[in-house]
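Hi F.,

I've been meaning to write this up properly since the lab meeting, where we talked about keeping a consistent format for the predictions we share between groups. The idea is simple: the sequence comes first, exactly as it goes in, then the structure tokens exactly as they come out, then a line or two of notes. No screenshots and no reformatting. I'm using this chain as the first example so we have something concrete to point to.
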Amino acid sequence: MARRIPHSVGYPQSVTSVHAALTDERYWRERIAEVGGDNARLDTLEIGDGTVSVEMEQAIPAEHLPSMVTKIRPGDLQIVRTESWGPLVGERATGAVTARVTGMPGELTGTVTLSASGTGSIVELDGEVLVPLPLIGGRIEAVIAERITEIFNHEDEFTARWLSSRG
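Output, unedited:
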């Protein structure tokens, strides 16, 4: 059974400002450098006319994982993530996120939406983690959901600082 990951973050900046950040190459390079963790990297970064598609690799260190996970997959969990954003249409942009753990069954899939909220904006993720392993899949899903949410929170904090520093 999959585990849902609802996640949202509000920003005082306008939808236009947040979307401009999400489609800025410098934003992505600085974000992965600051909050990506050890050995994190951008593998692909494609920016189009108001769109972006990013593939990155990050790791969850083994010391942050319960033993049931490290018994199945020793060492750090390598996570390959993709994030894409479409163009801004009015006061809304949509996209998609995926994440998969290398060497182990399991993935995160979801949609993301940027929209206006009061005088600012909100980014909402509607995702789910699925680890199709009998008996222990649900427990591993919970661990991955928790760690991925922590990564999202760090990225949200980075984005808030990045937006504030640009006026």
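Notes:
The first strand starts at residue 3 and ends at 11.
Strands lie at 3-11, 41-47, 52-60, 77-85, 92-101, 107-117, 120-130.

If this format works for you, I'll send the rest the same way.

G.
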